[in-house]
Amino acid sequence: xxxxxxxxxxxxxxxxxxxxxxxxxxxxxxxxxxxxxxxxxxxxxxxxxxxxxxxxxxxxxxxxxxxxxxxxxxxxxxxxxxxxxxxxxxxxxxxxxxxxxxxxxxxxxxxxxxxxxxxxxxxxxxxxxxxxxxxxxxxxxxxxxxxxxxxxxxxxxxxxxxxxxxxxxxxxxxxxxxxxxxxxxxxxxxxxxxxxxxxxxxxxxxxxxxxxxxxxxxxxxxxxxxxxxxxxxxxxxxxxxxxxxxxxxxxxxxxxxxxxxxxxxxxxxxxxxxxxxxxxxxxxxxxxxxxxxxxxxxxxxxxx
Length: 304
Ligand SMILES: NC(=O)c1ccc[n+]([C@@H]2O[C@H](COP(=O)([O-])OP(=O)(O)OC[C@H]3O[C@@H](n4cnc5c(N)ncnc54)[C@H](OP(=O)(O)O)[C@@H]3O)[C@@H](O)[C@H]2O)c1
Prior knowledge:
By secondary structure, the protein is an alpha/beta fold. The chain has helices at about 15-25, 80-105, 140-150, 175-185, 205-215, 235-245, 255-265, 265-275, 280-285, 295-304; strands at about 5-10, 30-35, 50, 65-70, 110-115, 130, 160-165, 170, 200, 200-205, 220-225, 230-235, 280.
């Protein structure tokens, strides 16, 4: 069993966020163990090792932190009832397994940094949303609340728990941005629905830096919005994107794009594309967290 100090276990460390996070942790001198469903096939980067869920609970003995990013992709298919069940179960069960493994440790981890999402707040109007806001309603809000409650059970063991309510992650490697870039590049970009819905985004590098801070610093406890300080509405964001790509946006009426999105994606379109919230990272900023990409212009200039 690896009991070296400065060891961090990353659950779901093979995804969009996890891959970059693992490299950043290694760069900062941590020993990293990636907790994955496929330890045999994972080629972990040098300095990291791959572990299976069957290796719990011993794996968590005395680690500096567990960072939990595991869960079925939210935007990878229509939200059928079985898909919704998988999205919910994959988060709640993995988090419950981590917490129960911590219970079995003689020396539980110092910290659990658990992913959550701005879906916690549900659809909102244009007023800024900070961490103290009440939870919203709808499928994602309900999943996020239950997910956070599961993670918070670790506090009973003296584990510091930080919940990072992640916004739309902007990255070259995957996630929402390449899907937004493609139609604009092919002269088919347009705003979605009214265009007034909030789009609370974060550059992948800033999110990775935030997760690293949350793992290392005792002041990071409780919920934090993992979003950039400048959320925008969908219309303004799409205009910035179009300008960056030197393309026009099509003047398609909002009701038509809303209709098409709902037809293609069903309930998921409402929750992820046609509604939103203007979420601000008040608590991270209060702790002095510095964003490398505070505005959408700086983020898009870097990524495109
Ligand atoms: N990307 C975003 O824009 C965004 C926004 C808000 C919140 N988040 C949240 O942040 C976390 C990380 O995001 P991401 O974009 O890096 O996600 P991702 O690319 O989909 O990676 C998530 C990882 O979770 C593991 N996983 C998938 N299905 C699972 C299941 N049924 N049971 C156990 N583990 C499973 C996978 O690891 P293995 O295959 O190695 O087991 C996968 O690599 C996710 O929980 C996501 O909900 C992301």
